[in-house]
Amino acid sequence: MVFPIPSADATTTHTALPLRVATAGEALFDLIEEPDGRLKPCAGGAVYNLTRALGLQGVGTLYLNPLSGDLLGRQLARGLHDAGVALASPTPVRAPSALALAALDTAGKASYSFYRDGVADRQVTAAALIAACAALPDLQVVATGCLALVAQDAAVYQPWLAAQRAAGRMVVVDANLRLSAVDDADAYRANVMAALQHAHLIKVSDDDLEALAVPGANALERAHYLLQQTQATWLALTLGPDGAWLLQRDGLAVHAREEAPITVVDTVGAGDCFLAGLITALLAGPEHSEEAMARRAGGLAAPITETRLRAVLHHALASASYCVERAGCAPPSYEEARERLALRSAATTAA
After folding, report:
1. Which CATH number do you get for residue 56?
2. Mean pLDDT for the chain?
3. What is the pLDDT of residues 221-231, one digit of tens each?
4. In this predicted model, what pLDDT tens digit does every residue of 4-26 receive, in sequence order?
């Protein structure tokens, strides 16, 4: 089915929510290998998945990069529109959409190869990103990561990140390294580390820490070390089936994992849904909640209590768990994530 790109008016007025989060980075189509060898096309890319997940959780979100006018670009635009996400660049560009080939192992974990030269989402400048954010009076958070952190795009994203931190917005960076996407791994690592210096919230996996060659005897030690090498307030460490840690700069650290068995269909988009859950919980949920307004008045990047730190992590984990039980990136709504948390709480109490 061909989906037309919504008009400028449709994309900017689809949601009445104030735009509190702006995301920048890749939007592409994953071609996922199925057991019979066929390739299943799925809209994706880490930043695209994060953006949709934020919109579906009721957070007013703006996607900053342009999309292609080709068939895939129209479907990417429709996916964002249906999630309530606004487009900073509603007019499509002539460049093609990017592609990624995703192969799944026996545990449902994906490995990728990318086709991104001259693609639509890379037709952007630092000046355009900065101007789009400056025009948003309610903007509190900017987020990027993954393929936006390749060294070739440093001149686009590094100045933008620096400008957002200087403007007092919370900066979120998902390391999410894809070494298969670059020829110069050392330059990629260096650019990722430079981006992390701007962040208030960092997300890494145990694999990311290995790829960055962070010192330490285990993933948790490496995560503590990395946090201290940056200015970040928080660092989230995901460990797959072993759950996740959320570390705070003042030394607080909490861990959570799913207690009930999970039937994993695949892990595509799980980390992106996890990060969307983190951001949503730090914002204290959709804009209309009283807690969200109080959090906004109190300063978003300030340290929080251990109780709240744990609640934020649990919401993020519930968002990821919902995703892995479904094929492809299937983000939950805010209500679905809360329902999953309530069931988990009930099961824990009963036990």
Report:
1. 3.40.1190.20
2. 88
3. 999 999 999 99
4. 333 333 333 344 689 999 999 99
- Closest CA relative to residue 126, chosen from 163, 173, 159: 159
Per-residue pLDDT of 251-265, as tens digits, reads 999 999 987 777 777
Question: Is the overall model pTM greater than 0.85, yes or no?
Answer: yes
In a domain, 269, yes or no: yes
Overall domain count for the chain: 1
Regarding beta strands 98-104 and 110-115, do their DSSP bridges make them parallel or antiparallel, or are they unpaired? antiparallel
**Domain ranges, residue 153:** 9-350
- What residue type is 133 in one-letter code? C
In a domain, 323, yes or no: yes
Residue 1 is assigned to a structural domain of this protein: no
The answer to whether residue 3 is domain-embedded is no
